Protein backbone atom coordinates (compact mmCIF):
# COMPACT_ATOMS: atom_id res chain seq x y z
CA UNK A 1 0.00 0.00 0.00
CA UNK A 2 1.51 3.29 -1.08
CA UNK A 3 1.69 5.60 1.94
CA UNK A 4 5.49 5.90 2.10
CA UNK A 5 6.60 9.30 3.37
CA UNK A 6 3.04 10.54 3.81
CA UNK A 7 2.52 12.75 6.86
CA UNK A 8 -0.39 11.28 8.80
CA UNK A 9 -2.19 12.54 11.92
CA UNK A 10 -4.23 10.03 13.92
CA UNK A 11 -6.38 11.27 16.80
CA UNK A 12 -7.04 9.06 19.80
CA UNK A 13 -4.01 7.02 18.78
CA UNK A 14 -2.87 6.08 22.27
CA UNK A 15 -5.03 2.98 22.37
CA UNK A 16 -7.15 0.50 20.42
CA UNK A 17 -7.93 1.12 16.75
CA UNK A 18 -5.97 4.40 16.66
CA UNK A 19 -2.86 2.75 18.08
CA UNK A 20 -3.06 -0.16 15.63
CA UNK A 21 -3.56 2.32 12.78
CA UNK A 22 -0.51 4.35 13.85
CA UNK A 23 1.60 1.18 13.93
CA UNK A 24 0.34 0.10 10.49
CA UNK A 25 1.01 3.47 8.84
CA UNK A 26 4.53 3.49 10.29
CA UNK A 27 5.11 -0.08 9.07
CA UNK A 28 4.20 1.05 5.54
CA UNK A 29 6.68 3.96 5.71
CA UNK A 30 4.50 6.92 6.68
CA UNK A 31 5.49 9.53 9.25
CA UNK A 32 2.86 9.37 11.97
CA UNK A 33 1.70 12.08 14.36
CA UNK A 34 0.30 10.06 17.24
CA UNK A 35 -2.19 12.32 18.96
CA UNK A 36 -4.26 11.61 22.05
CA UNK A 37 -5.80 13.42 24.99
CA UNK A 38 -3.47 11.19 27.03
CA UNK A 39 0.09 12.19 26.07
CA UNK A 40 1.67 9.36 28.04
CA UNK A 41 -0.16 6.68 26.05
CA UNK A 42 0.59 8.50 22.78
CA UNK A 43 4.30 8.63 23.68
CA UNK A 44 4.30 4.88 24.40
CA UNK A 45 2.97 4.24 20.88
CA UNK A 46 5.68 6.52 19.45
CA UNK A 47 8.33 4.59 21.40
CA UNK A 48 6.98 1.28 20.10
CA UNK A 49 7.06 2.58 16.51
CA UNK A 50 10.60 3.93 17.00
CA UNK A 51 11.75 0.55 18.33
CA UNK A 52 10.65 -0.93 15.01
CA UNK A 53 12.53 1.81 13.12
CA UNK A 54 9.36 3.72 12.19
CA UNK A 55 8.89 7.49 12.21
CA UNK A 56 6.44 8.94 14.75
CA UNK A 57 5.89 11.97 16.94
CA UNK A 58 3.40 12.54 19.79
CA UNK A 59 1.17 15.60 20.21
CA UNK A 60 -1.40 15.95 22.97
CA UNK A 61 -4.81 17.12 21.77
CA UNK A 62 -8.34 16.97 23.10
CA UNK A 63 -10.38 16.92 19.88
CA UNK A 64 -13.30 18.55 21.68
CA UNK A 65 -11.20 21.72 22.07
CA UNK A 66 -10.87 23.76 18.88
CA UNK A 67 -7.59 25.38 20.01
CA UNK A 68 -6.05 21.92 20.61
CA UNK A 69 -7.07 20.82 17.11
CA UNK A 70 -5.58 23.99 15.58
CA UNK A 71 -2.37 23.44 17.54
CA UNK A 72 -2.21 19.77 16.47
CA UNK A 73 -2.53 20.54 12.76
CA UNK A 74 -0.43 23.73 12.76
CA UNK A 75 2.39 22.09 14.72
CA UNK A 76 2.38 19.12 12.31
CA UNK A 77 2.57 21.39 9.26
CA UNK A 78 5.31 23.55 10.84
CA UNK A 79 7.35 20.46 11.70
CA UNK A 80 6.86 18.38 8.54
CA UNK A 81 5.92 20.98 5.90
CA UNK A 82 2.57 19.44 4.90
CA UNK A 83 -0.22 17.12 5.96
CA UNK A 84 -1.27 14.25 3.70
CA UNK A 85 -3.80 12.36 5.81
CA UNK A 86 -5.86 12.85 8.96
CA UNK A 87 -7.55 9.89 10.60
CA UNK A 88 -10.31 11.13 12.88
CA UNK A 89 -10.45 8.24 15.29
CA UNK A 90 -10.81 9.69 18.81
CA UNK A 91 -14.09 8.56 20.26
CA UNK A 92 -15.79 7.64 23.49
CA UNK A 93 -18.28 4.95 24.25
CA UNK A 94 -21.92 4.43 24.89
CA UNK A 95 -23.64 5.06 28.22
CA UNK A 96 -26.02 2.08 27.87
CA UNK A 97 -29.09 3.99 29.01
CA UNK A 98 -32.38 4.18 27.16
CA UNK A 99 -33.09 7.54 25.53
CA UNK A 100 -35.56 8.75 28.19
CA UNK A 101 -33.04 7.94 30.95
CA UNK A 102 -30.06 9.54 29.22
CA UNK A 103 -28.10 12.13 31.15
CA UNK A 104 -27.68 15.51 29.49
CA UNK A 105 -24.02 15.63 30.47
CA UNK A 106 -23.38 12.25 28.79
CA UNK A 107 -25.07 13.46 25.62
CA UNK A 108 -22.93 16.64 25.60
CA UNK A 109 -19.71 14.73 26.29
CA UNK A 110 -20.22 12.11 23.57
CA UNK A 111 -21.35 14.63 20.95
CA UNK A 112 -18.44 16.96 21.83
CA UNK A 113 -15.82 14.27 21.22
CA UNK A 114 -17.33 11.95 18.59
CA UNK A 115 -19.13 14.52 16.44
CA UNK A 116 -17.87 18.05 17.09
CA UNK A 117 -14.31 16.72 17.44
CA UNK A 118 -14.48 15.19 13.97
CA UNK A 119 -15.93 18.44 12.56
CA UNK A 120 -13.12 20.50 14.16
CA UNK A 121 -10.45 18.19 12.74
CA UNK A 122 -12.06 18.19 9.28
CA UNK A 123 -12.46 21.99 9.25
CA UNK A 124 -8.84 22.76 10.15
CA UNK A 125 -7.32 19.95 8.06
CA UNK A 126 -9.36 20.99 5.01
CA UNK A 127 -7.98 24.55 5.26
CA UNK A 128 -4.48 23.08 4.99
CA UNK A 129 -5.48 20.61 2.24
CA UNK A 130 -6.92 23.45 0.11
CA UNK A 131 -3.70 25.46 0.57
CA UNK A 132 -1.47 22.58 -0.54
CA UNK A 133 -3.86 21.24 -3.22
CA UNK A 134 -4.37 17.70 -1.90
CA UNK A 135 -5.41 15.75 1.18
CA UNK A 136 -7.16 12.70 2.53
CA UNK A 137 -9.53 12.26 5.46
CA UNK A 138 -10.48 8.90 6.96
CA UNK A 139 -13.12 9.11 9.65
CA UNK A 140 -13.69 6.28 12.08
CA UNK A 141 -17.46 5.97 12.27
CA UNK A 142 -19.11 2.72 13.39
CA UNK A 143 -21.70 0.13 12.52
CA UNK A 144 -23.71 2.31 14.94
CA UNK A 145 -23.53 5.03 12.28
CA UNK A 146 -25.37 2.83 9.79
CA UNK A 147 -27.80 0.75 11.84
CA UNK A 148 -29.97 1.13 14.93
CA UNK A 149 -28.10 1.04 18.22
CA UNK A 150 -30.51 0.88 21.15
CA UNK A 151 -29.52 2.21 24.59
CA UNK A 152 -26.87 4.20 22.83
CA UNK A 153 -28.59 7.40 21.66
CA UNK A 154 -25.69 9.87 21.85
CA UNK A 155 -23.23 7.41 20.32
CA UNK A 156 -25.71 6.52 17.60
CA UNK A 157 -26.36 10.20 16.82
CA UNK A 158 -22.65 11.01 16.76
CA UNK A 159 -21.73 8.15 14.44
CA UNK A 160 -24.60 8.81 11.99
CA UNK A 161 -23.29 12.40 11.99
CA UNK A 162 -19.78 11.23 11.14
CA UNK A 163 -21.15 9.27 8.16
CA UNK A 164 -23.14 12.35 7.06
CA UNK A 165 -20.14 14.68 7.39
CA UNK A 166 -18.02 12.19 5.42
CA UNK A 167 -20.44 12.08 2.49
CA UNK A 168 -21.20 15.83 2.44
CA UNK A 169 -17.56 16.90 2.62
CA UNK A 170 -16.60 14.31 -0.01
CA UNK A 171 -18.92 16.08 -2.46
CA UNK A 172 -17.69 19.55 -1.49
CA UNK A 173 -14.03 18.77 -2.19
CA UNK A 174 -14.26 16.08 -4.90
CA UNK A 175 -12.72 18.36 -7.55
CA UNK A 176 -10.00 19.63 -5.18
CA UNK A 177 -7.93 16.45 -5.00
CA UNK A 178 -9.24 15.84 -1.48
CA UNK A 179 -10.90 12.55 -0.57
CA UNK A 180 -13.10 11.87 2.46
CA UNK A 181 -14.07 8.33 3.48
CA UNK A 182 -15.09 6.50 6.62
CA UNK A 183 -14.68 3.05 8.07
CA UNK A 184 -17.50 1.55 10.09
CA UNK A 185 -16.15 -1.09 12.46
CA UNK A 186 -18.43 -3.55 14.14
CA UNK A 187 -17.52 -4.88 17.59
CA UNK A 188 -13.74 -4.70 17.79
CA UNK A 189 -11.43 -5.83 20.60
CA UNK A 190 -10.40 -2.63 22.43
CA UNK A 191 -10.72 -0.70 25.69
CA UNK A 192 -14.03 0.65 24.41
CA UNK A 193 -15.46 -2.84 23.94
CA UNK A 194 -14.01 -3.93 27.33
CA UNK A 195 -15.89 -1.04 28.93
CA UNK A 196 -19.16 -2.36 27.49
CA UNK A 197 -18.45 -6.00 28.43
CA UNK A 198 -17.31 -5.08 31.95
CA UNK A 199 -20.59 -3.21 32.50
CA UNK A 200 -22.69 -6.03 31.02
CA UNK A 201 -20.73 -9.34 30.86
CA UNK A 202 -23.81 -11.17 29.57
CA UNK A 203 -23.46 -9.12 26.35
CA UNK A 204 -20.45 -11.17 25.25
CA UNK A 205 -22.58 -14.15 24.22
CA UNK A 206 -25.36 -11.91 22.86
CA UNK A 207 -22.98 -9.91 20.66
CA UNK A 208 -21.15 -12.96 19.34
CA UNK A 209 -24.48 -14.57 18.47
CA UNK A 210 -25.25 -11.73 16.03
CA UNK A 211 -21.84 -11.71 14.38
CA UNK A 212 -21.82 -14.24 11.51
CA UNK A 213 -18.07 -14.80 11.97
CA UNK A 214 -18.72 -15.45 15.71
CA UNK A 215 -15.79 -13.31 16.82
CA UNK A 216 -14.87 -9.68 17.44
CA UNK A 217 -12.77 -7.71 14.99
CA UNK A 218 -9.09 -7.12 15.67
CA UNK A 219 -7.77 -3.57 15.73
CA UNK A 220 -5.17 -4.53 13.12
CA UNK A 221 -7.98 -5.58 10.74
CA UNK A 222 -9.57 -2.13 10.99
CA UNK A 223 -6.16 -0.46 10.64
CA UNK A 224 -5.49 -2.25 7.33
CA UNK A 225 -8.64 -0.75 5.81
CA UNK A 226 -7.80 2.74 7.08
CA UNK A 227 -4.31 2.62 5.56
CA UNK A 228 -5.77 1.32 2.28
CA UNK A 229 -8.27 4.21 2.09
CA UNK A 230 -5.46 6.67 2.82
CA UNK A 231 -3.16 5.13 0.23
CA UNK A 232 -2.68 5.90 -3.44
CA UNK A 233 -4.34 2.55 -4.24
CA UNK A 234 -7.79 4.11 -3.73
CA UNK A 235 -7.57 7.37 -5.71
CA UNK A 236 -11.12 7.05 -7.16
CA UNK A 237 -12.84 6.29 -3.84
CA UNK A 238 -14.51 9.14 -2.00
CA UNK A 239 -17.58 9.58 0.18
CA UNK A 240 -17.71 5.87 1.00
CA UNK A 241 -18.21 3.91 4.18
CA UNK A 242 -16.35 0.61 4.43
CA UNK A 243 -17.99 -1.72 6.93
CA UNK A 244 -15.73 -4.15 8.81
CA UNK A 245 -18.01 -6.19 11.03
CA UNK A 246 -17.57 -9.91 10.36
CA UNK A 247 -20.93 -9.78 8.56
CA UNK A 248 -23.00 -8.30 11.42
CA UNK A 249 -24.73 -5.76 9.16
CA UNK A 250 -26.02 -8.57 6.94
N1 LIG B 1 -14.02 -0.92 19.58
C1 LIG B 1 -15.16 -1.02 18.91
O1 LIG B 1 -15.89 -2.01 19.00
C2 LIG B 1 -15.55 0.09 17.96
C3 LIG B 1 -16.57 -0.16 17.04
C4 LIG B 1 -16.94 0.84 16.17
C5 LIG B 1 -16.32 2.06 16.19
N2 LIG B 1 -15.32 2.30 17.08
C6 LIG B 1 -14.71 3.62 17.08
O2 LIG B 1 -13.31 3.51 16.95
C7 LIG B 1 -12.68 4.65 17.54
C8 LIG B 1 -11.58 4.18 18.47
O3 LIG B 1 -12.16 3.43 19.51
P1 LIG B 1 -11.40 2.24 20.26
O4 LIG B 1 -12.32 1.11 20.28
O5 LIG B 1 -10.04 2.07 19.72
O6 LIG B 1 -11.38 2.85 21.74
P2 LIG B 1 -10.22 3.08 22.80
O7 LIG B 1 -10.93 3.51 24.03
O8 LIG B 1 -9.31 1.90 22.84
O9 LIG B 1 -9.37 4.30 22.21
C9 LIG B 1 -9.86 5.62 22.14
C10 LIG B 1 -8.70 6.59 22.30
O10 LIG B 1 -9.24 7.91 22.15
C11 LIG B 1 -8.67 8.75 23.15
N3 LIG B 1 -9.58 9.87 23.43
C12 LIG B 1 -10.73 9.84 24.14
N4 LIG B 1 -11.27 11.07 24.18
C13 LIG B 1 -10.44 11.88 23.47
C14 LIG B 1 -10.47 13.25 23.15
N5 LIG B 1 -11.44 14.06 23.59
N6 LIG B 1 -9.47 13.76 22.37
C15 LIG B 1 -8.47 12.95 21.93
N7 LIG B 1 -8.39 11.64 22.23
C16 LIG B 1 -9.37 11.11 22.98
C17 LIG B 1 -8.47 7.83 24.36
O11 LIG B 1 -7.51 8.38 25.24
C18 LIG B 1 -8.04 6.54 23.69
O12 LIG B 1 -6.63 6.49 23.54
C19 LIG B 1 -13.80 5.43 18.23
O13 LIG B 1 -14.19 6.50 17.41
C20 LIG B 1 -14.91 4.41 18.35
O14 LIG B 1 -16.17 5.00 18.41
C21 LIG B 1 -14.91 1.33 17.97
Automatic annotation (TrEMBL):
Pfam families reported in the protein's UniProt record: adh_short_C2
InterPro entries reported in the protein's UniProt record: NAD(P)-bd_dom_sf, Sc_DH/Rdtase_CS, SDR_fam
Gene3D superfamilies according to UniProt: NAD(P)-binding Rossmann-like Domain (3.40.50.720)
PROSITE patterns given in the database record: ADH_SHORT
Key words of the record: Oxidoreductase
UniProt superkingdom: Bacteria
A single GO molecular function term of this UniProt record: oxidoreductase activity
Family classification: Belongs to the short-chain dehydrogenases/reductases (SDR) family.
Protein name per the record: Short-chain dehydrogenase
Native source species: Polaribacter filamentus
Amino acid sequence: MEVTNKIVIITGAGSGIGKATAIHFAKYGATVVVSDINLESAQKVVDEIATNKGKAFAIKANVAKFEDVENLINTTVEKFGSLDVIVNNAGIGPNLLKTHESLLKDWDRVIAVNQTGVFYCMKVALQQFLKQGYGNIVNIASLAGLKASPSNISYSASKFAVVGMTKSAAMEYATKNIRVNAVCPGYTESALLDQLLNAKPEMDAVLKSVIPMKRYGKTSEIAEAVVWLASDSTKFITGQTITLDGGTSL
